[in-house]
């Protein structure tokens, strides 16, 4: 493949000389073929629905709802529902620190041992973290938070690699925006339902403090549903796209050394390394937002923020996904326009938030906003808009990845890399948040690192192919 084509959106394999294929009948095995996708429609209507990429994306969205969705629900009310944010921010830094290494590792392992085992593993570590928050609130066992953060970090590494591969790799190119929106929108139902539970329990808490302990019990119960849902996922050799073709993977089991070699090759592609700044920085402000909510808002106001943010993000995910798939001006122009719009909005929001923080830091009396307090609208709206824009960035970068021509296994590796750098950004963000620096300093850092990502992401939008294909390059053996 020529360098020109590579720069226009194709991610090439490491070596095209040898291709190995292996076929088995195991449910988690993958079709051993490098040919064009094979048309395969089951006779049963139920089987066609069960094996459809839409059903699989819905299931992975529901899994995401029960796992990171509930984690987000806890964090969105301010530092895991705790009264003091610093210990939980430190634990979150540990979680994402493990994910910096884990996401890429599990992305490579997915191509070796199969998608479903990795996905199942990803459902096992979130509930212990929520249980640790419960124990700390009731018994003061801070050590349990760090133990739970460790199990969560390992499980999240597996889940993030697997769910992203399904959401981006299973649909056809023309459906990836909407399907990514469905996946991310369903994840926000975790925050929506979690916030509704919290609001019903904490509706009378008009002062600052920790969330009611009953909240944790309800949310842990929801997280336990993730494992049985993971058993419903179809492996790539059985999942059927809307055009009647299979989602194909090249070999049943790959060599680990080969997968890491291919991982390194992908990292050297401009479509990936120019995305690193935005992956590291677009969620950086989340740590500040957690501190902002905890410092200035009552418990029920924080819970209301979680609820309304979730509703807005669900609607935004679906609308942005549909907009990106429409590509009315062509995919490349859509990518350019969308990123320029995002950049302008984010710069405006940072200016608004800095003015708020400046005002509240210098108030003669410590600001505490309840939902019926004067000035609540100004203080709350900017936080809501930040949540919406963070989610909008999320769907945009995964749609951007999906515009480039890659086979399913390359998508799996690329998603692992992307989530590695997302985790790196969150690690650094929460590390800053766990230090007792002023909120204004935290906010200024968030703004500076986001500004760095604007030109590099714009460069990626120029590389988007005008008419991407579902036929990525074949996988090569080394």
Automatic annotation (TrEMBL):
Pfam families with a match to the protein in the record: MFS_1
Top-level lineage group: Eukaryota
Molecular function terms from GO: transmembrane transporter activity
Main localization, broad class: membrane
Keywords: Membrane, Transmembrane, Transmembrane helix
Parts of the chain that traverse the membrane: 53-74, 86-106, 113-131, 143-170, 213-233, 272-292, 337-355, 443-464
Matching InterPro entries: MFS, MFS_trans_sf, UNC-93-like_regulator
Its membrane topology: Multi-pass membrane protein
GO cellular component, one term: membrane
Biased composition, class Polar residues, residue ranges: 1-10
Coiled coil spans: none
Compartments where located: Membrane
Location of region: Disordered: 1-35
Signal peptide, first to last residue: none
Name assigned to this protein: MFS general substrate transporter
């Amino acid at each position: 493949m020529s360098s020109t084509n590579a720069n226009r959106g194709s991610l090439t394999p490491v070596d095209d000389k040898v291709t190995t294929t292996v076929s088995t009948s195991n449910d988690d095995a993958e079709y051993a073929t490098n040919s064009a996708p094979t048309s395969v429609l089951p006779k049963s209507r139920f089987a066609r629905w069960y094996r459809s990429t839409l059903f699989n994306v819905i299931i992975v969205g529901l899994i995401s709802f029960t796992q990171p969705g509930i984690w987000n629900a806890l964090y969105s009310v301010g530092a895991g529902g705790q009264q003091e944010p610093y210990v939980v921010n430190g634990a979150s830094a540990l979680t994402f620190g493990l994910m910096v290494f884990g996401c890429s590792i599990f992305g490579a392992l997915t191509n070796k041992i199969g998608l479903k085992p990795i996905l199942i593993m990803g459902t096992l570590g979130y509930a212990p973290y929520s249980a640790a928050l419960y124990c700390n609130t009731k018994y003061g066992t801070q050590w349990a938070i760090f133990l739970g953060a460790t199990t969560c970090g390992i499980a999240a590494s597996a889940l993030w690699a697997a769910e992203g591969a399904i959401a981006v790799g299973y649909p056809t190119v023309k459906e990836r925006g909407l399907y990514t929106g469905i996946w991310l929108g369903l994840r926000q139902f975790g925050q929506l339902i979690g916030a509704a539970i919290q609001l019903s329990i904490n509706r009378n808490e008009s002062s600052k403090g920790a969330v009611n302990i009953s909240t944790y019990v309800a949310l842990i119960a929801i997280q336990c549903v993730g494992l049985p849902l993971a058993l419903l996922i179809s492996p790539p050799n059985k999942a059927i796209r809307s055009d009647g073709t299979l989602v194909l993977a090249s070999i049943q089991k790959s060599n680990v050394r080969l997968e890491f070699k291919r991982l390194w090759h992908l990292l050297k592609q401009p479509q990936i390394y120019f995305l690193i700044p935005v992956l590291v920085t677009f969620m950086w402000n989340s740590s500040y937002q957690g501190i902002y909510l905890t410092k200035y808002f009552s418990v029920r106001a924080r819970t209301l923020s979680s609820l309304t943010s979730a509703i807005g993000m669900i609607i935004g995910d679906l609308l942005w996904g549909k907009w990106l798939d429409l590509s009315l001006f062509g995919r490349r122009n859509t990518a350019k326009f969308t990123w320029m719009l995002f950049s302008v909005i984010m710069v405006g929001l940072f200016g608004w938030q800095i003015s708020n923080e400046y005002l509240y830091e210098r108030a003669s009396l410590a600001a505490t906003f309840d939902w019926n307090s004067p000035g609540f609208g100004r203080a709350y709206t900017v936080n809501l808009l930040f949540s919406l824009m963070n989610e909008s960035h999320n769907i945009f970068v995964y749609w951007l990845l999906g515009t480039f021509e890659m086979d399913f296994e390359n998508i799996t590796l690329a998603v692992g890399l992307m989530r590695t750098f997302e985790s790196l950004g969150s690690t650094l963000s929460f590390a800053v948040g766990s230090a007792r620096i002023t909120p204004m300093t935290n906010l200024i850092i968030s703004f500076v690192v986001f500004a760095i990502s604007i030109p590099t992401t714009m460069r990626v939008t120029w590389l988007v192919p005008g008419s991407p294909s579902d036929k990525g390059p074949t996988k090569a053996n080394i």
